[in-house]
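quick one, two chains, predict together pls
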Amino acid sequence: MSETGFFTDTTLCIGCKACEVACKQWNELPSDGFAFTGESYDNTSQLSGTTWRHVAFVEQVAVDPAAASPIVEKWLMMSDVCKHCTNAGCHEACPTGAIVKNEFGNVFVQPDVCNGCGYCVVSCPFGVIDLVDPIDADRKYAVANLNEARRDNNQTAIQNNGGVAGKCTLCYDRQKIGETPACAKACPTESIQFGDLLELRERANARVETLIARGIDAQLYGAEDIGGGIGPLNAFFLLTDRPEVYNLPVAPVLPSTRQPAGYAAAAGTALALAVAGWAIFRSR
Amino acid sequence: MNPDYYGRPVLKAPQWGTSVVAYLFLGGVTGGLGIIAALADPKDESGRKLRKTARYTALAVAAANPAILISHLGRPERFLHMLRTFKPGSPMSLGVWGLLAYSATAAATTVLEDGRLTVLQALLGAYLTGYTGVLLSATAVPLWSAGKVHVPAASVCSSVASACALASAISCLTGNSEALRKLERFELVATAGEVAVLVHFSLTGGPRVGRFASRVAAPLALALVGNLVHVPKKHERLRTLLTSALTMTAGYLFRKALIAEGIASTKDPGAGFRQPE
């Protein structure tokens, strides 16, 4: 089976947050609280263990002292999501095997296997996956109420018990029954496109060409190898500004690439100490 | 124009607290004691006594470790899920198996007093002193990832120094002065090594590393002084015990500062934009 993914075209995003709502609804994810941040229209702030889509609003104004009113310099929106890396830091770090690559090539956390050690959280170069706090019993959802596909995945009810890591599943349950993931389904402008990865990449390249022809400085983020050992992203983006503007790392690195140097340093130090220790303890 | 997104960090902060700090410290101590048990000379009385001290202490500390490790999990009742797979590419998975293998070997050595098992315990012990450093540096956390060589090397030194300090204190109290003299010299070498690694890390790692290192500088410097200073014979016992306490405090604070400043570094907006190779 070919791999699936998301192509999020930020030039089409209108900031309606239908993706956020659809994701919360379908996956039965609890609220992260309610706060007005004053950061443009973004009161979600970031992805979390229970927020798997996050619409970023880049509203930056440059004040021109000569002009009567501030001039809006940037007005960008982007629906952020787990990148579903080819080589995923969380997947490599997971000590229980709870995090797997499924048959669609997506990174999936099996919530009934995860024991909440938190090592995936620090191993994600994109700051996506996070631990879910234990959730009160009265907010748990009954497994009996879930449809068959979701019960088979043991996906949502256990997720909501908390104490485990959570992130976008790329709607594994919906994909299994041939449905489009909730966010892509709900997106009214096709800013979020779901489909076969190769087809999505072709479509994205064509879109970039069109935009450049119209004089828009468009670029893809993660459609090809993003570097640092991570490879291409199954959820990639079309951006019209530098990645940092959208709070995306410009040079992410797969953490495990540092292991050989680390083990070599530890072994070298231990050997040096052992030699010194031998001289101290075994000298006559 | 803002260089970042409303000052929001790119990365997620580790949700690791005191139990992880305690595990990192005690895991290193038990591993270091395994090394000391193998180094102790079985040909003389004091060496045999030291070997016994190191073995029993290593076993006691190793026995306490799993409880601490389990207590930090979001779902402690699922600890055994760690054992449903073996992933050498995950320092956390390899570490759990390493800890189990070490504990089993430590128990076997204590009972059987076998020479080959002693060497195996020392090798596994060396792994325990260093793997936690690799576990931290092979993450996206800015402070830890900046020290892919320094953090593991300093972890080994710190663990060995703390193990020496614990064995010193016990040897002092049990009157094994010959072993005590050697342990203190070994402790001095390990502490000096740790200081050298941390100084180099601070000089190359920027202000964030400087902040971290400044939190361990005082106890480390005092421990060094305690190891080097000469005092009248009647105060020798006090000096030994104080120095041991200082070295172990430095070892604990090294891990504590590493975790605390590591968490702080993830909250630094823009710190995750360009990640170290």
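Residues 137-144 of chain A have pLDDT under 50 and may be disordered.
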